[in-house]
Write a structure and sequence with these properties.
Blueprint (H helix, E strand, L loop, with lengths): L5 E8 L20 E2 L2 E2 L2 H8 L4 E8 L4 H14 L3 E5 L8 H5 L1 H4 L6 E6 L2 E3 L3 H11 L3 E7 L9 E5 L6 E6 L8 E9 L2 H11 L13 H9 L5 E5 L4 E3 L3 H18 L14 E3 L3 E2 L10 E3 L2 E2 L11 E3 L2
Parallel strand pairs: 1-4, 1-6, 4-5, 8-12, 14-16, 15-17, 16-18
Antiparallel strand pairs: 2-3, 6-11, 7-13, 8-11, 9-10
């Protein structure tokens, strides 16, 4: 019996979004800005690679295709999984975007579709989410996390059944406190999600160009809460949104910590004799040259380090 196929979609936005990430995004588009020495979008892509029976990854946004062409080709060859960039003709919303490209997304007849936001920083427990989704047997599963009551209203707050994990109530950035459980922006759906999006489009009064602009949170999650269609999977690991330049530094540190736990071979080693002294989590790009007398502490090295940096002590990200 042929195993079920899975595809993943990563929403990368466009040049008119993410203005809070300036000035870092002036010369490099936000999804390609380096976080822990890799483009921001690389981390969710690498996480998707670990999903069982993954057949394809789609990046959806409205950047020009030329901005992603080289990276998409490179990462496809590196991971041995097809990665395709799909450019929207205009913004269609977080749900409308996947609906717009539904024929391409469904061309391999997947049983499940992952949907991730590019600017999420977490451990991406995608395989565990998929297992949970199959147990729940609903239309979709949301990754959720508990945060402080003071910060919860910056995100989508939700209430779930403590036993069944069914999503009972969802509200986006409420003015009054609802719950300390928030939406992480990582989902897995069955193809039924497309029928639901079509239903939202059909009942819209406006049949003009914006009729297919559908928001996942307000138009899909909120109406379906409490209808035994959506469920939650709580992560106990770290989670952040990369919305500002300052968060890029924090998230680089979080990913380096994750490398230490799950991909230790990516981090440098050295005892100060034949190699530089390494303290903490240090990533050195393969093309970089580091003098053996250097001391590196919690650092990311991307460029060549010349002999002028003998005895240098580099700290932080």
């Amino acid at each position: 019996m042929e195993e079920d196929k899975v595809v993943a979609v990563i929403l990368v936005g466009g040049p008119t979004e993410g203005t809070t990430f300036r000035p870092l995004s002036f010369n490099t588009s936000k999804p390609l800005f380096p976080i822990a020495a890799h483009p921001m979008v690389h981390h969710p892509i690498s996480a998707c690679k670990r999903i069982p029976n993954l057949v394809q990854i789609f990046l959806i946004g409205f950047f020009e295709e030329r901005e992603f062409a080289l990276y998409v080709s490179s990462i496809s060859n590196e991971l041995k999984v097809p990665v395709r960039y799909l450019k929207e003709d205009r913004p269609h919303g977080s749900a409308g975007g996947i609906y717009y490209f539904r024929d391409l997304i469904m061309e391999d007849e997947p049983s499940h579709i992952f949907l991730l936001n590019c600017d999420v920083c977490c451990s991406f427990p995608l395989a565990s989410m998929l297992d949970a989704q199959k147990r729940y047997d609903g239309m979709g599963t949301l990754l959720v996390i508990k945060v402080s009551a003071e910060s919860a209203n910056q995100f989508g707050e939700l209430v779930d059944d403590p036993d069944t994990k069914e999503l009972l109530h969802y509200t986006e950035k409420p003015e009054t406190f609802v719950s300390d459980l928030i939406n992480c922006g990582v989902y897995v759906f069955t193809p039924e999600i497309f029928s639901v999006i079509q239903g939202v489009i059909d009942i819209k009064d406006d049949k003009g160009p914006s009729a297919d602009f559908v928001r996942l949170d307000q138009d899909i999650l909120s109406p379906l809460a409490g209808k035994k269609q959506l469920y939650t999977y709580e992560t106990l690991d770290f989670w952040e949104q990369i919305k500002t330049p300052g968060m890029s530094l924090k998230c680089s540190g979080l990913y380096l910590d994750l490398f230490r736990q799950s991909s230790d071979d990516l981090l440098a080693r050295g005892d100060g004799e034949k190699n530089a002294t390494i303290v903490g989590n240090v990533y050195i790009h393969p093309s970089a040259k580091v003098h053996p007398t250097a001391k590196l502490c919690d650092e990311i090295i991307k460029l060549d380090i010349t002999p002028l940096m003998v005895k240098a002590k580099l700290r932080k990200y």
